[in-house]
Amino acid sequence: MSSSREKKEDEIKKEAKRILDKFAKALSKVRTGEGFVEREEDRREEGDGIPGDNDFRERFFENAPSVSKDCIKAERGEWK
Predict the structure, then answer these.
(1) Does residue 79 surpass a pLDDT of 80?
(2) What pLDDT score does 40 carry?
(3) For a 10 Å CB count at each end of the chain, is N or C smaller?
């Protein structure tokens, strides 16, 4: 039983490698422009902004699983 499982795993690995190789080959043909942009300024000026949408805010907090005053309580994930 384990040999058929190992055989299936080997087939899957070979297929995955074939797909990745094909993708890498196709990706190597993609031409991109220069990715660097030079700007005179790198920050926006502070402003008053636009007023918030109270209806959206209410719906947003209603959909949150846990709320404390003006904050949504959320579980912190782990980096793996």
Answers:
(1) no
(2) 84
(3) C
